[in-house]
Design goal:
The chain is built from 14 helices and 10 strands. It has helices spanning 3-25, 42-49, 52-55, 68-76, 87-95, 140-143, 145-151, 169-174, 188-194, 220-225, 227-246, 248-258, 264-277, 291-304; strands spanning 27-32, 58-63, 82-86, 100-105, 112-117, 132-135, 160-163, 180-184, 199-203, 214-219.
């Protein structure tokens, strides 16, 4: 074999090796989170840190998002393979013709809450009568206030509802300009506790409004074209979430390792809330929302968020990609 032939053979071997490496790296997939990296989406970082996606043949890229609505839109337009978004945001987009479907609810109930300082005397929705309640216009928490009031037989005219700019939202409560705010227990409440205040969270899910929370979503056509790949992604992600809920400290390290600007202490604080949302009351496994919760979500969304009634709730989600052996709920 002459020199030229040896060089050609070596080049071919090198190309073959690089191809094998590329193949070993797995099928490239990208997931866009609901917002910035934090405890509510930490299960994906945990699974990646543990090498679970690689083992499943997936080369996963995780990117931060700019809100559930934007993430759902990116999935709909094919800019990302998967999204992590609030179920109602994905459902509303689907009503407009977007081919977006929920394939695995991770936070089976929302983290929305009536948030009050512990010394406020507010312990139930009925304690809001005669009180000042701050809301942010346009948010799901605000829109679903009517559902909270209706579920608890409260006359809306007897609650002083005040619209407040997001920048002054938490401050209004701490300065006692308002008695309560409607926000996220995994976000606003954490901010308040970090400032040394004791908080009482009245979760929407516990007072009649258990809408399904943050979920993995994907395009209909991509699911159909590669169902096995998406099934592997769901199974692997739920394994990551199982590991994260059992070891929040390791999960927080995984988040910080992949997104260094995140503060570990804040992620750990958020897990105190997130672990309460992974399983709805009556749920048997991660990712498997009880049918009653889907039905209730549909009733609330059609009545208060304008979701049309022309299609059944089953049009918005599928259980076909959920593993039979999903990690059990406690």
């Amino acid at each position: 074999m002459n020199r030229r032939m040896l060089i050609t053979a070596a080049a071919m071997l090198a190309l073959g090796a690089s191809g094998a490496l590329a193949q070993g790296a797995g099928k490239p997939m990208k997931i866009t989170l609901n917002f910035l990296a934090a405890a509510p989406n930490a299960g994906f970082m945990m699974a990646k840190q543990m090498g679970l996606y690689q083992k499943a043949g997936i080369d996963l890229t995780i990117e931060e998002g700019k809100g559930s609505g934007t993430t759902a839109q990116m999935v709909a337009t094919g800019q990302t393979d998967l999204g992590f978004a609030d179920a109602p945001a994905a459902m509303q987009l689907r009503t407009k013709g977007a081919p977006v479907k929920i394939i695995a609810p991770v936070l089976q109930t929302n983290g929305f809450a009536i948030i009050a300082l512990e010394d406020s005397g507010i312990a139930s929705p009925k304690d809001l009568v005669g009180k000042k309640v701050a809301v942010q216009p346009g948010t799901a928490q605000t829109t679903l206030l009517d559902a909270i009031l209706a579920s608890n037989q409260i006359d809306k005219s007897k609650v002083d509802i005040i619209n407040i700019d997001p920048g002054a939202f938490v401050g209004a409560l701490l300065e006692k300009k308002v008695d309560a705010i409607l926000g996220g227990a995994d976000f606003h409440s954490i901010q308040i506790r970090e400032r040394g205040f004791k908080v009482r969270d009245i979760f929407y899910r516990d007072v009649g409004v258990p809408t399904v929370g943050l979920s993995i979503i994907a395009r209909d056509d991509r699911i159909k074209a590669n169902a096995e790949l998406y099934r592997k992604f769901v199974e692997t992600s739920l394994q990551g979430w199982d590991a994260a809920r059992k070891n929040p400290d390791a999960a927080a390290d995984a988040v910080v390792a992949q997104f260094p600007s995140v503060k570990k202490a804040q992620v750990l604080a958020q897990f105190e809330v997130v672990n309460k949302l992974l399983c709805a009351p009556g749920a048997t496994a991660l990712g498997k929302v009880p049918e009653a919760n889907w039905t209730k979500s549909f009733e609330l969304l059609t009545q208060y968020l304008g979701l049309p009634k022309d299609k059944p709730i089953t049009d918005y989600y599928t259980t076909e990609l959920l593993p039979a052996s999903a990690p059990a709920c406690p």
